[in-house]
Amino acid sequence: MTKYVYRFGGGANDGGAGNKNLLGGKGANLDGMASIGLPVPPGFTISTEMCTRYYQDGEVFPDSLKAEVADGLAHIEGVTGKKFGDAADPLLVSVRSGARVSMPGMMDTVLNLGLNDATVQGLAQVSGDERFAWDSYRRFVQMYSDVVLGLDHDAFEEALEIMKEDNGFFSDTEMEAKHWKALVGEYKTLVEDQWGKPFPQDVHDQLWGAISAVFGSWQSERAKVYRRLNDIPAEWGTAVNVQAMVFGNMGDTSATGVAFTRNPATGENVYYGEFLINAQGEDVVAGIRTPQYLTKAAREEANAKPLSMEEAMPETYAELARVFDILETHYRDMQDIEFTVERGKLWMLQTRSGKRTAKAALRIAVEMASEGLITEEEAIARVDPMALDQLLHPSLDPSATRDVLTKGLPASPGAASGIIVFDADTAERRNEMGDAVILVRIETSPEDIHGMHAARGILTARGGMTSHAAVVARGMGRPCVSGAGSLSIDNKERVLRIGKRELREGDTITIDGTSGEVMLGEVPTVQPELVGDFGVLMGWADKVRRLKVRTNAETPEDCRVARDFGAEGIGLCRTEHMFFEASRITSVRQMILAEDEAGRRAALEKLLPEQRGDFHSIFEVMAGLPVTIRLLDPPLHEFLPHSESEFAEVAEAAGVGVEVLKRRANELHEFNPMLGHRGCRLGVTYPEIYEMQARAIFEAACDVAEKSGAAPIPEVMIPLVATKRELELMKKVVDTAAELVFAEKGRRIEYLVGTMIELPRAALMADEIAEVGEFFSFGTNDLTQTTLGVSRDDAGRFLTQYVDKGIFARDPFVSLDVEGVGQLIEIAVEKGRKTRDGIKLGICGEHGGDPASIAFCEQAGLDYVSASPYRVPIARLAAAQAALKKG
Ligand code: PEP
Ligand code: MG
């Protein structure tokens, strides 16, 4: 027969300590604390397995549970010397939920259970405190009616308020025994009116009612929502903890409190917490009375009058501090604790690993490793790589008030305030005038790059987490909120409407790319500090990781940021972004719109020195490191002129008529450009473009090698390859350009020619492709798009629903679809290596900065991941964790 009840405290040893899956976090740690000799009121835990069975059986308990619960009660009675339901000296218990992971406030609790019209008298007698007894009884009736009977909570609150008013009282503390007693009478009438039956007087009925209610709260709506948001499986279930009550409300030598063994906001190694004298646990959280500080130092720092626990109860405080140290040593982590002092005696009611900010997580991990409490490897594993994001960007001052207008996707972390502008040119102009601007667009396109660069932050109405705006913003380290569907942007009128509110160009807003919130006005921010603990932990991570970490960057500034963050090369330099700069866009347009090769070559000639300059400055920053440069990739129509003046400008440069250009632009129109004339298809049809780019790369590399002595290692990357023949043709173009340049310069540079794997066919044919390609870089943005047949630019509209309905566990553009897309990567890795032993393998899609995807890359045996500059530290830590996990 399955055992469901596990006793703790009073020397019981049912083996529950530490078994969180079976007993939930609270139950496992109560037993844990009791077994290391800490003062824990005796009790028992009904396991999570019972919760599962309860629902399987149609919300009934098996008969066997009755006997087990009776044994559990007998255990508590034995240790306390009190009897449950005894009118002379009653045992009271708490009934509390407790799942494997903490779900704060999501499930139910009943305190003071076991009180009825008879036992309340006994409690008054034994405690010698009639007021306390009736106060406890009224609390119990109120809580039980709410949690177990499901009655209207407000009616009870109202009755209390009226009682206070009638007596001219301001606070609960003024109520005397007779008032509480009268209130209990009113509560009982309320119960009978609403429930149709008198309040249950049988203490065993009370107990079973509470046990059912706590198990029942596992399936409450709010618990379900919380589970969904936090990826907690429904089958885990909750445990139920029944424990002898101890009372913090037995006068001025009693108290109750909540504490952390270290500061959860900063990580500082100081005790941190609050307590209330003469109060019960829920009073601290409920905010009815203002709690007092735990330590004298904290009280003094806050300039508060009411004495700290350290001052008011020095002996008990010393005992508590001793317990804190024991708990931290035992659990080897910062603990979040609930305690009660009953007439001077300390009791521990809960301990668990405390939630903390990223800053605190870092400091605690590093300090605990330095203290020898945990190993460096454990410290690495303790910090959530994504939480580092909070540290790398300025963030909103948590204490600031905010007027939230709407919410979109948290596309690029960090916060920014500025005036609204609706186009890139205005963004640039206002920025030059010294204004902080937020670029607000329906969606962005490569043409907006200069405006995005000039803006402090970017807000779009459309687009997902890998939309253009999101990718570029992350690359630049600009905060971005994308896909804020409730925005209506009127570019003509230059107004932004959000529901009934209207904002005009020049109005100030704040965006938080970490939460997706858009706020009115300027919300103050705080700057990150990347020294100290951050550097120490990163150093430890670098020692254990196998994967190299590169960056996706295309400007010298981004390259510098990435190098400062520890990037070991460039994994993807997207050359198209360079084509949009004001000085060259006209030449680019001239090239695209040319009718023949001679026309294109004329334009390319103008572009060559510009491109060479681009690569020169990047190579200088990345001297000695590998730099993967991708030749032109996007559909040409993205570069087309729009306005009459733009057409006129190109016409003049090319020496042709505007009408000719317009006809040519029309010819370039594509219905499905992402699957159209882009990637290496451009190089196949217009090899002179790639030829110019290759020449620019090698000329710049030779120049930098000559100047600095540290040659860069160019890795020329051909995009969107599906067949070996495509790559063969393109490699020939690159190799020929290289040989010409080397002959002209009289020096050779080491280089590689490889391909992106971003089409399923390329993955499947990787053995053939590797006969030509010297490296592979997985372009998982396109590979996801082409494998799933889902547009990366439009998917935001339905992907949230797909995640909500469990079709995808996470947005596949954010976290790699390991089963599907991952399989293609595995096939390509295996086939590529079969042909070319030691072929260099990396990933440069957005997934290269996602910890779960990085774990997959470690498993798949890639050589490096490439992430946007601000994700480089995240990738370093995630790579270390992945290596440790693999062992
Ligand atoms: C990719 O497709 O994964 C990739 C890195 O290229 P881009 O995002 O520029 O299409
Ligand atoms: Mg791509």
Summarize the structure.
Keywords: ATP-binding, Kinase, Magnesium, Metal-binding, Nucleotide-binding, Pyruvate, Transferase. 46% of the residues lie in helices and 17% in strands. By secondary structure, it is α/β, with parallel strands linked by helices.
Question: What can you see in these coordinates?
Answer:
It catalyses: pyruvate + phosphate + ATP = phosphoenolpyruvate + AMP + diphosphate + H(+). Mg(2+) binds at residues 758, 782. GO terms for molecular function: ATP binding; kinase activity; metal ion binding; pyruvate, phosphate dikinase activity. The protein has 887 residues and is of the alpha/beta class. It folds into 5 domains: 50-244, ATP-grasp fold, A domain (Dna Ligase, domain 1), CATH 3.30.1490.20; 255-356, ATP-grasp fold, B domain (D-amino Acid Aminotransferase, Chain A, domain 1), CATH 3.30.470; 395-526, 3-Layer(bba) Sandwich (Glucose Oxidase, domain 1); 545-572 and 758-887, Phosphoenolpyruvate-binding domains (TIM Barrel); 575-750, Phosphoenolpyruvate-binding domains (TIM Barrel, Alpha-Beta Barrel). Helices cover 46% and strands 17% of the residues. It has 35 helices and 33 strands. The strands form 7 sheets. Strands 14-24-23-16-17-18-19-15 form an 8-stranded mixed β-sheet. Strands 26-27-28-29-30-31-32-33 form an 8-stranded parallel β-barrel, surrounded by 4 helices. α20 (533-544) packs across α35 and α23 (597-621) runs parallel beside α27. Residues 758, 779, 781-782 line the site of magnesium ion. Residues 572, 574, 633, 758, 779-782, 844-845 line the site of phosphoenolpyruvate.
